[in-house]
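subagent[fold] <- orchestrator: predict structure for attached chain, return tokens only, no commentary.
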Amino acid sequence: MPIPADWPTTEAQALAEQQRLRPLVRARDDDAPSRLIAGVDVAYDDDHDLVVAAAVLLDQDTLDVVEEATAVDRIAFPYVPGLLAFRELPAVLDALAALTRTPDTVVCDGYGLAHPRRLGLASHLGVLTGLRTLGVAKTPFTFDHHEPAPERGAWTPLTDPATGEEVGRAVRTRPGVKPVYVSVGHRIGLDTAVRTTLHLARRYRLPETTRHADSLCRRALAEAQRDRTPAN
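subagent[fold] -> orchestrator:
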């Protein structure tokens, strides 16, 4: 999964790339089976120009970890809200490429269509790789929603205040615990994205994919930082 040679380096280039890729997103289910599901996450050390990505592959039925991989890169793009995919995707692509098996579905710790230009990390990753993707975020970004009912599985629409469009859903994965924010990435419908999230979040608020990937990338970042710390 090579990074394109013309990877954007300026905000204007990145905005233009999002507009170019947005029509390629397929916000509907396909008929492909899903047996292996991956979680990806990223951790940074801006002071040392480091970004670490983790990809953790789970058996979709048992949720057992079957493989994991990390990648350490230099930060590819400055921090700009709405353009985080350009900072994170190079390392995420490297981590996915390091897996020996290709996931059928990838869960991103972030957004898909729940993005001002409808191309968050999950959608961007899906279009670049052709993989089925969805986004599960911890916060709702700039969109409106009402609190779901307190029981597990309750949800309410996440809507764009400018258009009224449903761009995702606030989903209660644990009774009485604040919801997560689910959106379509690529090659998946919103109903299926919500069902997948609930399947993966059987015991905790966050999906097992995200929990494992977050833990792995934090450990990998700590190791990379140690490797770059001069000995006394």
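orchestrator: received. Logging for downstream: Residues 85 and 147 are 28 Å apart (CA to CA). The first strand starts at residue 36 and ends at 45.
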